[in-house]
Amino acid sequence: MFVTASGLMTDPQPTSASDADDVERHPCPRCLAQPGSLCRSRSGAVAGTYHTGRFTKVPRIAKLLRVPTPADRGPGQPWRPGTPVPAAIPSDSPVADIRIGYARCSSLTQELQSQLDALAEHGIPRDKIFAEKISTRIRVRPQFEAALTAAREIKAHAPHCRVIFTVNEMKRLGRDAAELTALADHLTAHGLLLEMLAGPLAGIYDPTGPGRLLFGFFAAMAETERENIREATLEGLDAAARKGKHGGRPPVITDDMLHTVLRRRANGETVETIQPDLFIPAGRRKGHNPSLSSIYRALAEHEKTKAYPEAVEQAHADFAAHTR
Q1: Nearest in space to 87 (alpha carbons), one of 160, 144, 141
Q2: Catalytic annotation on 106?
Q3: Residue 147: pLDDT band by 50, 70, 90 thresholds?
Q4: Which of 16, 41, 106, 294 is labelled catalytic?
Q5: Main-chain dihedrals φ then ψ at residue 114, nearest 5 degrees
Q6: pLDDT tens digits for range 204-216
Q7: Across 179-241, where does the E strand assignment appear?
Q8: 285-323 as b/e, with b when 16 or more CB fall inside 10 Å?
Q9: Residue 163 to residues 280, 300, 311: CA-CA distances in angstroms?
Q10: Rounded CA gap, 159 and 17, in Å?
């Protein structure tokens, strides 16, 4: 029942996930909910808002009139005790740095080992390094989210320690300026530090004063770099297309194979009897028989071409005009 709040709020003054977490660190004097549990109503359900005497113990929200229960905590649902909050750490405990590493590259053909080596040389154990091969255009990155979750949990259990989210370069976090700035604010709000091992902002990021300005500047530069890479890629694809070179996998059903299928079907043979005599000429499945579905798709495309020849010619003309 005690889960991270990430759902949308309907209240005009919604609470953030960190507000809800901090409220639940205290017992409730009204409903007697223990730390780690939600407030409960008289009917025994999860209360729609936290009771005032509880959230006033959190300084930054003490003056609010009400703090709503996040939607994903199930307000109105049957109440059950949550996960107890870890015992407080003695104030005289030694302060230590705990690093969570994150490595990322965009495609399967790129290598991650150099980033993993750099993070390991910085003293981060392998079990605290999260790595994945995924584009920054994909908003949900599982290992990135897992790394953030781990960092927040460690900070919650060891508030006396510095928890540092470490990457090799800024572009491993993303190339969208707004997203990078929001990430930096998220880390700061949870008491986490951001560290980069290379690049113009190598070192631990300082969210105050000139540090914030520099971070915003280089985040914008990273976004510009991504747009330049995209434009160069599109220009390269257009240049290759003008030379008759088109990317992607080679077609399974070639023109010769399609001609064979059409000729033999005209003589009364079925696709099922023709398929064993066809062989894929190139690619990963070279030498194998094409599937029946591939043959039927090729036949359907052929029928479309015959049915709408003017549309096909117009499409070719539009493409040629676009690539000039």
Answers
A1: 160
A2: yes
A3: very high
A4: 106
A5: -65, -40
A6: 876 665 666 666 6
A7: 193-196, 203-204
A8: eeeeebeeebbeebbeebeeeeeeeeeeeeeeeeeeeee
A9: 55, 59, 61
A10: 17
